[in-house]
Amino acid sequence: MASSHEFFSAANPDQVRDVIGQTLTGLGFTVESTPAGGFVAKRGSVPMTVLLGGLAGGKLYMSFQVAIMELQGQIVARLSRVTANAFVTGGAIGAAKANNVFMETANAIGARMHDAGILTSSRQLA
């Protein structure tokens, strides 16, 4: 299971931040800015996940973090999974579903950045 995905861009950080924030919101995430200029994106319900586990469906709670930084003249946006214990994530079924959503989210961000003409490359990290 991938735990992070990095997106590289030559665009300015605000443009990268806007495209990623709009993508996450469009996917149903609530996006909160962090003091460092990134995001915490949350979706689902902790109580429903605790109650129903991996069977919570669209209410399965998950949280991702986006860090935006400069590295060697490029802007790097790193999408990472926020880990929680198995009880909160819905066990093995919930973890598999959260991994699918993570990959779908990474693909959507990459596609939106590409469509906006600001993606230079991307890579999945273990």
Mean pLDDT level: 86
- CATH topology description: TATA-Binding Protein
Please count the beta strands (DSSP E, at least 2 residues each).
6
Shape: elongated
Which CATH architecture?
A: 2-Layer Sandwich
Cα end-to-end separation: 7 Å
Q: What is the CATH first-level class name?
A: Alpha Beta
How would you portray this structure in words?
The N and C termini lie close together (7 Å). The protein has helices at 13-26, 46-52, 86-89, 91-115; strands at residues 4-9, 30-33, 39-43, 62-71, 74-81, 121-125. It has 126 residues and is an alpha+beta fold. A hairpin with a 5-residue loop joins strand 2 (30-33) and strand 3. The protein has a six-stranded antiparallel beta sheet with strand order 2-3-4-5-1-6, covered by helices on one side. Helix 1 (13-26) packs across helix 4. The mean pLDDT is 86. Helices cover 40% and strands 30% of the residues. The chain has one domain (4-46, 62-83, 96-125): TATA-Binding Protein, CATH 3.30.310.
